[in-house]
Amino acid sequence: MNMVLALQKEDIDVAALIAGSRTNKDGAQVVFIGCVRDDGDMDALEIEAFVPVAEKDLADIAAEAMELFHLNSVDIIHRYGRLALGETIVVILVGAAHRGEGYEGSRYIIEKLKEKVPIWKQELSGNARGEWVH
Question: What is the dihedral sign for C-alpha 96, 116, 34, 76?
């Protein structure tokens, strides 16, 4: 199984990730894409991560999800650095025999990622910086 778990500054090639992940055992591939949204006062988002710990946490979350939801594959790529409105922050790609398992596994992964992984976000607006949030 080819699993991609990464933190990176570069944009994410979602089409390549999907093509490289699909197997004949997959009846479903579920893709979650989290983007920088305009909350009204924000120009960009600064994302920081404690990469060594975050990479281990991503691997742990992927393994948990695979076991709990009988997934064939899990890919998680999260970006860090300065991201403009509309840019991709995170992509989670789950391969499963059935769509229900795929959806449940994907939801589990994003919730655990937000709860556990050391990644912080700060809203940027002109010269002002908002609070760092986990």
Answer: negative
Please, are residues 32 and 52 in contact by the beta-carbon 8 Å criterion? Answer: no
Distance separating the N- and C-terminal Cα atoms of the chain: 31
Exposed (0-12), middle (13-18) or buried (19+): which is 21, by Cβ within 10 Å? Answer: buried
CA atoms of 43 and 134, how far apart (whole Å): 19
For 78-134, how does the pLDDT look when each residue is reduced to its tens digit (9 = 90+)?
Answer: 999 999 999 999 999 999 999 999 999 999 999 999 999 999 999 998 766 666 665
CATH architecture of 5-133: Alpha-Beta Complex (3.90)
Residue 88 CA to residue 36 CA, distance in Å, equals 7
In the chain, domain spans: 5-133
